[in-house]
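Hi X.,

You mentioned you wanted examples for the new student's onboarding notes, showing what a folding record looks like when two proteins sit in one file. Here is a clean example. The first protein comes first, with its sequence line followed by its structure tokens.
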Amino acid sequence: NLSWDSLLSRDKKGLWWLSGSDLRTTKMETEVLARASHGHHKGKQSLGPDYIKMAAEQRMNTEIRRSVFVVLMSSEDYVDAFERLVGLGLKGSQEREIPWVLLHCCIQEAAYNPYYFHIAMSLIKQSKQHKLSFIFTISDKLKELSKLNARGIVN
């Protein structure tokens, strides 16, 4: 159950409206976000809050999705993005978030951007699990096709 102090502290993350949920993020989620935002840009400034704010605006509602989003938006090129995504060390169901975020970002672009294609192909070549995740995610997006605007359909 939730403690009274947890309910009163609004600045913490969590699903406070769900019974039994806790407002604290897990240690692993915090580490993944830290690796996404700081671990791979030695000698550069750390990421400002802009990427985190952008992730929130795009409804990236979990630490894993925010981490993947930050990697995609802050990488220098698709090779850097691929290496950083692999470097996040996601396992199992966490890896399935990568195609979801990647396709979401691709659909939001004003015009087709091959950056996302190259990242997807690199991931697919690396692992059969990534290939299956992309197949299922694309299948889900195709089911939602009627809800997308013209730009989203073209991308």
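Then the second protein repeats the pattern, sequence line and then tokens:
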Amino acid sequence: VCRCYTYVVEGCLRMYEIDEKGVEHNLQFALENEWIVDIGSFHAEKPSSLFIEALEEHGGLHRSTPTCCISIPSTRSSTATSG
């Protein structure tokens, strides 16, 4: 289960899935100053079928939703009204 959002301070992360034949399919890349999260798993609190991998050395911040809302004030109103 995905329990946090990750903010990429430096480096690059990718999110991918593996199909029934074992082939990897890239779904998203997160570069510096971007966020990455398996949003479906995070909100549904269900196991994820996706993977997130660092493609190079990286620095990141991992935050749960309440922590993000405190740390990033502009998200307070949008998350408070969405749920």
